[in-house]
Amino acid sequence: MASVKPANTVRFAWWGAEESGLLGSEHYVAGLTPAEAARIALYLNFDMVASPNYIFGVYDGDNSSGTAPVSIPAGSDKIEDVFERYYAGRGEPYQDSTFSGGSDYGPFIAVGIPAGGLFTGAEGLKTAQEVATYGGTAGIAYDPCYHQACDTIDNVSHHALDVNSDAVATAVLTFAIDTTLVNGVAGKPGNRLGQLRPYNPTTVDPMADRYSS
Questions:
Q1: For the ranges 98-107, 173-182, 201-210, which has the lowest average pLDDT?
Q2: Other beta carbons less than 10 A from residue 186's beta carbon
Q3: 18, 26, 80, 130: the active-site residue
């Protein structure tokens, strides 16, 4: 991607204090002026992307599973489509991951900014059906070292990391060039001034089931 000249600004963020209640992302979104928020075309969230006992989950932007407890901004379904087309083109299975509102995308969708992302599983237990689809071991956590001292740099699935690294690059490059799919604005992001909501922390539940699949 070093030779790519994106049309849009791509901002990378490493949020602090997510486990304490999304404090970093909340602080960022709460500090945006209406004009600044309106210029953000979309937000991509990559929290769990290489769990040892992985699944390939895509945030359910169209709420086709009907399980989202939060309002999902228009355009999020188009982000989901980009990831799903990537997995299909690579011959990899994938499944919906519920927008629970409890990861760092929460403050963004709370104000109406479209979002999407990937999820390979956390403390939940892998099902026999998922083993049939992805391999791995049924009845144990997707990430047995989740929030534990054993969660080191070695605690990854190299296959999932390889697949999802390319998935991340595909989505970032797609929207760095053009956000029309998400917000109907050719080439450039934004122009939603007056359409977004003020940030209200009570609309985000940081203790929600963050990692539903």
A1: 201-210
A2: 9
A3: 18
Q: Answer whether residue 11 is part of any domain.
A: no
Total domains present in the chain: 1
Tell me whether residue 82 is in a domain.
yes
Q: Measured between alpha carbons, how far is 180 from 78 in angstroms, rounded to an integer?
A: 10
Q: Give 45's pLDDT tier (boundaries 50, 70, 90).
A: very high
* Pair 42, 11: CB distance under 8 Å: no
Is 80 marked active-site?
no
The pTM is what?
0.86
Distance CA 49, CA 33 (A): 31
Can you tell me the distance from the alpha carbon of 104 to that of 168, in angstroms, rounded to the nearest whole number?
A: 16
Neighbours of 117 (CB within 10 A): 27
Average pLDDT over residues 13-32: 81
Helices (H), the chain: 23-30, 34-38, 76-90, 106-110, 128-134, 158-177, 180-183
C-alpha–C-alpha distance, residues 213 and 100, integer Å: 10
Whether 176 maps to a domain, the answer reads: yes
Domain of 155 in residue numbering reads as 23-203
CATH code of the domain in which 53 resides: 3.40.630.10
- The model's pLDDT over 125-161, given as tens digits with 9 standing for 90+, comes to 999 999 999 999 999 999 999 989 999 999 999 999 9
